[in-house]
Design a protein that fits this description.
The protein has 382 residues and is mainly α. It has 2 domains: 28-220 and 338-356, Citrate Synthase, domain 1 (Orthogonal Bundle); 227-328, Cytochrome p450-Terp, domain 2 (Orthogonal Bundle). It is 56% helix and 3% strand. It has helices spanning 36-42, 45-54, 60-72, 78-89, 94-105, 119-144, 158-167, 173-185, 193-203, 208-219, 227-241, 245-254, 272-287, 291-306, 318-328, 336-356; strands at residues 20-23, 28-31, 34-35. Strands 1-2-3 form a 3-stranded antiparallel sheet. A hairpin with a 2-residue loop joins strand 2 and strand 3. The protein is globular and about 70 Å long. The protein binds acetyl coenzyme *A (ACO) and oxaloacetate ion (OAA). The site of oxaloacetate ion has 8 residues, from loops. The site of acetyl coenzyme *A has 17 residues, from helix 15.
Amino acid sequence: MSDDLKKGLEGVLVAESELSSIDGDAGRLIYRGYAIEELARGTSYEEALYLLWNGYLPTEDELEPFADALMNEREVDDTVLETMEKLAAADERPMAALRTAVSMFSAFEPESDADPEDLDATLRQGRRITAKIPTALAAFERYRIGEEPVDPHPDLGLAANFLYMLTGEEPDDVAAETFDQALILHADHGLNASTFTSMVIGSTMADIYSAVTGGICALSGPLHGGANQDVMEVLMEIDESNLDPLDWVEQATDEGRRIPGFGHRVYNVKDPRAKILQERSEELAAEGDSKWYDITSTIEEYLTEEKGLVDKGIAPNVDFYSGSVYYQLGIPIDMYTPIFAMSRVGGWIAHVLEYQDDNRLIRPRARYVGSEDQGFVPLEER
Ligand SMILES: CC(=O)SCCNC(=O)CCNC(=O)[C@H](O)C(C)(C)COP(=O)(O)OP(=O)(O)OC[C@H]1O[C@@H](n2cnc3c(N)ncnc32)[C@H](O)[C@@H]1OP(=O)(O)O
Ligand SMILES: O=C([O-])CC(=O)C(=O)O
C-alpha cells in the first residue's frame, strides 16, 4: 500500500475505460476512437449518445428507433412540473431545480424494481433521465418568466427541441446546429469530477438516478461546470466597468483573481473543445453583436501571450467560449451549467455502466493526522 499522498487524486489511475481519452499536451480529445472535431462536425448529439452507450456509431436504421425512444420519453409527470413551478416561484437556481427534478424522476420510473445488476434496465432508466432533463429545465425557465411550459415538439431532436421548449419558437438551423454541437462537445471527458462522483455512487450499486443526481451536484461548482456561467458574468462585469478589458484583467490578475474558463487539470494547452466553440462564437458574432466574442478573444490573447499563462500550461478550457455562444443564442446565463448537465448526463451514464460491468466498490483512504490519544472525559466533567 503506497503512502504517497495525491491531493485532488491528480494523475491517480482508478479505472480502465473505452469511452474517452484526453491528450493534455497535444490538446486532443477522442470519444471511443473518434476525434472530437469529427464528431462535432459530422454527428448529432443523439449519435454521440449512441456511440457512448453502445460502443459504435449507429447506422440510419439503428439511429431512428434510438432517437424515437428518446423522443417518446421526453414528457415529465405533472408532479415534476408543479415542483418546477414552485421552485421558480421561490427563485431557486436552475441547477438546483434540475438536481431536484432528476431526483424526482425516479418516483415515476416504470422499471424502479429492476435488479441493480441488470445493466440493460439501468441503460433504459438512463435514457429516460436523458430524455426528460430538457423538458424539466425548459419548464422551469418558462415558469420563471411567467409563461406556461411548451410541450415537446414531435419533429425536433433533443437540441432543437430544448431551444423550442425554452422559447416557444422553432430555432433556425444555425441555432439548432450550434446548440447540438455544444451538446456533443460536452458529452464526455474522462474521469472529470462529476463523472467520478457518479462512478463512486454507481460503484455502491446505487441506482442511476442517484448517480446522475450526484453528477449534477459535482458539476455545479465554479471549479467545474459552474465556470461557464462565471465566464459570462466576468464578461458582463468587464463591459459594465467601462474599463478597457485588458486593464480589467490586469487588475484582476494582480489581485490574484482566477480567470474562469482558464486552466485545466489535464490540458496544458488550449482545450480542443474551446477551439471549436471559439469558431462558433466568432461566426455568431459576425452575424450579430461581436462585443462578447471580441472581449473574450482579446482576453485570451493577452493572458496567454502577454501574461505568459500559456507557458505555465494555463489555457482556455471548454467553458471559456461556451458562455458567449449561449449568450448569442439568447439562453439565460444561469442556464449554462444546467445545459452542460443536459449533455454530460450521457457521459455519466456511460461511465457508470462501464464501471458496473466489472464493479468494485470505490473506497480510497485518508492519512490520519489527528491526535492518537486525547484522554476521554465524560460530558459532565468537561
Ligand atoms: C468543464 C471544466 O470543469 S473545465 C474547468 C472549469 N473551471 C474553471 O475554469 C475555473 C478556473 N480554473 C481553475 O480554478 C483551475 O484551473 C482548475 C480547478 C480547473 C484546475 O485546477 P488544478 O489542476 O487543481 O490546478 P491548481 O488549482 O492547483 O492551479 C495550478 C496553478 O495554476 C494557477 N491557475 C489555475 N487556474 C487559473 C486561472 N483560471 N487563472 C489564473 N491562474 C490559474 C493556480 O493559481 C496555480 O498557480 P500556483 O501554482 O502559482 O499557485
Ligand atoms: O475533465 C475535467 O476535469 C473537466 C472538463 O473539462 C470536463 O469535465 O469537461
